[in-house]
Amino acid sequence: MLLSQTSGDGAGRAALIVIDMLNTYEHEDADVLVRSVREALPGIGALLGRARDAGAPVVYVNDNFGLWRSHHGEILEAALAGRYRDLVEPVAPDEESLFVVKARHSVFYETPLAYLLGQLGVRRVVLCGQVTEQCVLYSALDAHIRHLDVVVALDAVAHIDAGLAEAALRMMERNMAAELLRSGEITFDGVPPG
């Protein structure tokens, strides 16, 4: 169960969903995104540690870079071989992490994630990663329409456009009933923040 300082009853098991953090940063917005990712890394690292310590599911959902033969090993290798290895290594999956490959913005779109979460008994998803105004937003919407409780870790998401990211966060909170919390306010199965 997910507990937070400001959450409701915390019913249901929580999973940490790490969105698109295995990234080669070889796109036109990379320079702007990299600055925001650096700011988000400590929060993502804290959530990963807390979720792993609690035995909560940690699911990496990542773009396949358009390479349909990709699997998580290839995606991780490509990201580590890129010019921003230092942004990938601290948040790389461990051997217990689960992995889902996606091709579009939402972590749910034509992926087995909903089925996987159902099998794990997950009712709440904690979203972190990139990009707030794109993949995080669409993933939060798809989680909401699947009747999952959504938590977005404010200091563990990265953006390209700060204004759009702020608007996206407001939409997630208002239209999708998402809880917007800092990583230090989020715990998994009673493992305290910090």
TrEMBL record:
Keywords, comma-separated and alphabetical: Hydrolase
Keyword set includes Hydrolase: yes
Keyword Hydrolase applies: yes
Residue ranges constituting the Isochorismatase-like domain according to the UniProt record: 14-180
InterPro entries linked: Isochorismatase-like_dom (IPR000868), Isochorismatase-like_hydrls (IPR050272), Isochorismatase-like_sf (IPR036380)
Gene Ontology molecular functions: hydrolase activity
PANTHER family: ISOCHORISMATASE-LIKE DOMAIN-CONTAINING PROTEIN, PEROXYUREIDOACRYLATE/UREIDOACRYLATE AMIDOHYDROLASE-RELATED
Protein name: Isochorismatase
